[in-house]
Amino acid sequence: MGLPLTISGLSVSSKRGRLLLSVPDLDMPAGSLVGIEGASGAGKSTLLYALAGLQEAKGSIRWGDQDLLALNAGERARFRANRIGMIFQDFLLFEELDAGENAALTALFRPRRERATLRAKAAERLDFLGLGGETRDRNVVSLSGGERQRVAIARAMAAEAPVLLADEPTASLDRAAADRLIEDLVNLTRSSGTTLIAVSHDQTLISRMDRVLTIRDGAIVADRKAAR
Amino acid sequence: MIALWENLPALTQDILFTLLLLSPSFVVGVFVLHGYAPWPLVRAILWRFRGSSTLFVLLIAISVGMGIGLLAQERGLRRGTAHAADKFDLVVSAPGSEMTVMMASVFLKPSDMPLLDGETYNAIANHENVSIAAPLAFGDSYGTASVIGTTAQFARYLADDHIEGRMWQSANEALAGALVPLAVGDSFTPAHGHGDSAEEEAHEGADLVVVGRLAPTGTPWDRAILVPVEMVWTVHGLGTGHDPQHRDQIGPPFDPQTFPGTPAVVVRSEALWANYALRSEFTRDRETMAFFPGAVLAQLYQVLGDVRQVMSIMAVVTQVLVAAAVLLGLFIISRLFHRQIALLRALGAPARFVFSVVWSFGATLLVAGSALGLLVGFGSAAVLSKVVTARTDIFVTAPLGMSELHLLAGFVSITLLLSLLPAAIVLRQPVVPGLRA
């Protein structure tokens, strides 16, 4: 089951003090699928990384009952490891490892007793995403862009994190691959009740979301339900 | 505790000391890696940056190899020179520099030296505790081989009686050292002097026949031609050293009246204590000087020992500097995979796990380089030994010893500790720019 999000008084500034993002208030119910759109440099990814606790920010980002910004770096890392999965535009896989090893990457820094379970879960995700069998043992370099991004999804969801943050997940894919990925992503998150927040320019993906936020110059200027 | 340590066998002490030197790296390794499995990622990063990694390993290997190779070589040279002096228990000469006499008699590098007269020689030779008293006569050569005049008894002693062919029986017969390019039956005419300044025609008519070859001794004497000392004296117009009634005699006793003189007498006694007594007896102001070449070498080693200590420190400092350069390189190379590091941190990897990945990467390069350096050191010491042996005729072998292992262990520990630094610096890099790179 996903986590609800409550933001209040969030602001992110550059090192020189320039305001990059300001979100006075924002609520998202658990299990919602939210798209974030806007022009390049508007602050979409800044918001996404702030939600992951990767940006220095002021205010409050509350996932469930946990205020992320009140945690220190180690606690935030632990929170991410257990509660947040992430997907990136260009997959960010270890190209020297096979699909199975990439999907189970986070097992490497899990307690020993959890590793086998996580690997099994990663394999299960890969199966669900059509990358089971021999494909699991193939080096990711030999996979197509769509397959690589599905490996990244399996990695993000192997730990059954209640939150999935996706930064332009279809930007590196052709239309057909992107469409299939969107289908998989939406089905997987909906079936597991995961909260999905996706930054994207891809209107097909945006259209599958429950809700769409538009960001301009570091501020949310529109908040609407997606047209299905 | 000290008594317990001192009672341990030397090998056990060496092994324990090596482990002690390595212990900081073990402790760091256990502390950094405990509970994590970074090796799949380390392997992946090593493979991705295999070119740079190989270069780093080679750099470390060459640095380590040269360091330990040189130290091993220095020890091998000491052993080789000590071995060369084995047969020279005691040398008696006119007063002067012990080093000069030793260089002439043991290492066949003669220079102008005053001579001992016949009475002195006879006093030595006739001493009750002396079993061999061999006069030496230098000054001639054949090609690159020195022609040394001495006695048959000393020639046999030098080669442990292993002579292919036979001992000389007349003044115009010779024994070739093991490395002299002359076979039994070959004839030659010695030149006066050595090298480019040798006078080839000076002893024309003094033809010599090789009647035997000495077994290898691993000393400069392997490249010498031994002849009856009477032959050298004769071709220089100094007589035979025997009275006219015995002018064809070869070997002692010599006539003190006609004895031409010798720069050095190699003395051997059957009893160790007698050597000390003889040294004392023939150390006379303004008349004779008696010394143990081994003791002179020991003094030389003492000086070299100080140099060795300085060299060892310099070797360590050099290697630490190389290691520092390599660590700087590690830091630079770690920037190449800062995206992967940023990814791990974005996925929630604990700081210590990320630290362990970066440290293990550096540690793998350092340990692999050091291990390869051991082989390079072994190889370079072997090559240097061959070169030194070829140039000096002193048989030098330089197998790696425990002191080299200690140096290596110290190097590994210091550099593994130093490599904590780039790992710590990598952790300070911001995550988001890494993800966006």
Key words describing this protein structure:
heterodimer; A: 228 residues; alpha/beta; Rossmann fold; six-stranded mixed sheet; four-stranded antiparallel sheet; globular; B: 437 residues; eleven-stranded mixed sheet; 15 helices; 11 strands
Short description:
The complex is a heterodimer of chains A (228) and B (437). With 228 residues, chain A is of the alpha/beta class.
Q: How would you explain this protein's 3D organization?
A:
- The complex is a heterodimer of chains A (228) and B (437).
- Helices cover 34% and strands 26% of the residues of chain A.
- Chain A has helices at residues 44-51, 73-83, 99-103, 112-128, 145-157, 175-192, 203-207, and strands spanning 5-13, 19-28, 33-37, 58-63, 66-67, 84-87, 163-167, 195-199, 211-216, 219-225.
- In chain A, helix 4 packs across helix 5 (145-157) and helix 5 runs parallel beside helix 6 (175-192).
- Chain A is globular, with a radius of gyration of 17 Å.
- Chain A has a single domain (5-225), classed as P-loop containing nucleotide triphosphate hydrolases (Rossmann fold).
- With 228 residues, chain A is α/β, with parallel strands linked by helices.
- With 437 residues, chain B is of the alpha+beta class.
- Chain B has two domains: 2-83 and 300-436, no CATH class; 90-291, no CATH class.
- In chain B, strand 2 and strand 3 form a beta hairpin.
- In chain B, helix 4 runs parallel beside helix 12 and helix 12 runs antiparallel to helix 14.
- The longest helix of chain B has 44 residues, at 293-336.
- The chains are: A alpha/beta (228), B alpha+beta (437).
